[in-house]
Amino acid sequence: MGTHRQRTTARPSRFYWTFAVAFALWSQPGRASCPEKELERREEEANVVLTGTVEEIINVDPVHHTYSCKVRVWRYLKGKEMVKSANLVEGGNKVMIGGFGDPLICDNQVSTGDTRIFFVNPSPTSMWPAHKNELMLNSSLMRITLRNLEEVENCVE
Fold it and tell me: Can you tell me whether residue 32 is helix, strand or coil?
């Protein structure tokens, strides 16, 4: 009566899918693994260490996917004297920090309202005028926890 056709479709093997997912994770920079420097070294390389809350995200660079933020400073853990009056905005309790999104820094993304420990340096003259009077992110951000604060304070002392 009718003809029975067996439908065959090529199905990728599980190995193929496993390989595809592993490759996708591996190929995204900073996602699968990101070597982070020791906290002591990060603290030594930063002229300024502060705690603060991101109030505004500005200066988004659509080509390099980097941006700057206006950060309300809660406390300087190191280097308050390195922050000049030109670095301060809106009455002196806020600073501009650039370098977010830098692929050379592991944890480099923030949202408005995030409170973090920032390891920063004054922007080098080679980055002027675009980043003049900004502080630049020097290494990964740290979440504010009692343990993290104690570890950073111990490094600073």
Answer: coil
